[in-house]
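pasting for ref
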Amino acid sequence: MLMAHPAVLRNLVEQYETLEILGAEAGSPAVRQRLADVAYSLCVATGTRDVDAALVAARHGLPGARAGDDSLLSV
């Protein structure tokens, strides 16, 4: 499977995390749509169907990622 460039993955993860921190889920329709768009892009870029799995896959695709990063056991 092709994987997105690490810079693209990093950007998408940062956008998603920022929108979550800012409470985008409770924001305006435009902000909620942006969160949904970024989540969708993460899923497409990582070949997953769930944003949580996409975040794990994206973080593992970044330079310097360790095998234990984002372990599903810590969720």
